[in-house]
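User: I'm writing a short report section on ligand binding and want a predicted complex to refer to. Could you take this sequence and 4-nitrophenyl phosphate and write out the structure as tokens? A short remark afterwards would be nice.
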Amino acid sequence: MRILMVCLGNICRSPSAEGVLRHKLKQAGLVDKVFVDSAGIGGWHEGDTPDKRAQKVAKNRGYDISGLGARQIQPDDFSSFDVILGMDHNNIKALKQMPQGSAVIDLFLNYAHAERTEMVDPYYGDMQDFDQMFDLLEVGCDAIIQRLKGQL
Ligand code: 4NP
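Assistant: Sure. The structure tokens for the complex follow:
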């Protein structure tokens, strides 16, 4: 199973989602069965490590995302991943305008069956927005783990 997390810049939401899900997969003993990666709709931050605010909140919660590097989504990703999870409706719209492959495209929080469906962009926000982002990521990733346990 291969899951790609996607947001606009690949420096705030999707690398954080990648870090949280990978951590929880390790805890659940599923890390060998599920490959997680992240990418951005845009390539402005190609090669950049995640936003320092995201790194800080991640570290406070026991996740290490400092080694991740941003990349732009590629045509191959639509076939090489089983599931592509966009963080907000704009991400989904952009993903659906690209050439499609076999990958299922869904909103991260929808796939996780969470009450909220959208992960708002914290880039122009403050530390509280980043904390809220991680709250949602943790709830969502826990739900994804439960979902995967039933599938794998
Ligand atoms: P992200 O946040 O999509 O969660 O990584 C953003 C980061 C950078 C930009 C936009 C959103 N940007 O326009 O540079």
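A remark for your report: The first strand starts at residue 2 and ends at 7. Residues 7-13, 44, 121, 123 surround 4-nitrophenyl phosphate (CB under 6 Å).
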